[in-house]
Amino acid sequence: KLARSERESAWREMARQVAHEIKNPLTPMKLNVQHFQRTWDPGASDARERLDRFTTALVQQIDVLGRIAGEFSHFAQMPPARPEPLDLRDVVSAAIGLFHGHPNLHLTLDASGPIPVLADREHLLRVFNNLLQNALQAIPNDRDGSVRVVLRQEHGQAVAEVRDNGTGIAEDVRDRIFTPSFTTKTSGMGLGLAMVKRMVEQAGGSVRFETIEGFGTSFFVTLPLGKTVST
């Protein structure tokens, strides 16, 4: 009975984790499609370019969802990392692209040049999907949202800062932010930031945050620099 109870508990945790990871991209994907429908002009001079960006971003996110669903049968673990040379700008740009259709949100990317890293592309997409979604959810409905992603090289490392102008994180819960199943939201299972931490650490990096209540939060993802990626 004890063994069965432990197995059932592990499956429940796995189900919550997978459901959270699958749900995260769906809302921005829907908003992006709706924005595209409202603004699409087949006669515009940049129509083909816009269509290519739109379809590429959606296909990448669909591939991520497919991989998560396929790996669900691997009990109590997420897909193993498959590191490859990447330009962190490209990965972050792909994640940001899904949120551009969100109303009342000013979203910017600040990166002066290539940021080479060696990491799993799908894992990084999920990391930034989570961080952007959390930033968005932290902004009150009566406030114009501002989310800025700043990429830089610092002391031989790649650093990505996701900065929002939300409500900040209360002091009494800060030490539990990366704890699985802890959440300050009224919905969700609180697994997103735990998964972010796990995936970043698998890539040899670290994640931390700075916050001011009432003014916003910055999450910092630090990764080892890789070899320069050809463009």
Notes on the protein architecture:
With 231 residues, the chain is α+β, with helices and mostly antiparallel strands. It has 5 helices and 7 strands. It has a 5-stranded mixed β-sheet with strand order 2-4-5-7-6, with helices on one face. The chain has a two-stranded antiparallel sheet with strand order 1-3. A hairpin with a 3-residue loop joins strand 6 (206-212) and strand 7 (216-224). It is globular, with a radius of gyration of 18 Å. Residues 182-190 have low confidence and may be disordered.
**Average pLDDT metric:** 82
Binned strand content: 15-25%
* Total beta strands: 7
Strand order of the largest sheet: 2-4-5-7-6
Report how far the terminal alpha carbons are from each other: 57 Å
Largest pleated sheet: 5 strands, mixed
Radius of gyration: 18 Å
Shape: globular
Q: Secondary-structure element sequence?
A: HHEHEEHEEHEE
Residue runs with pLDDT of under 50 for 5 or more positions: 182-190
Number of helices: 5
Oligomer: single chain
Helix content: 40-55%
Q: What structural class do helix, strand and pairing data support?
A: alpha+beta
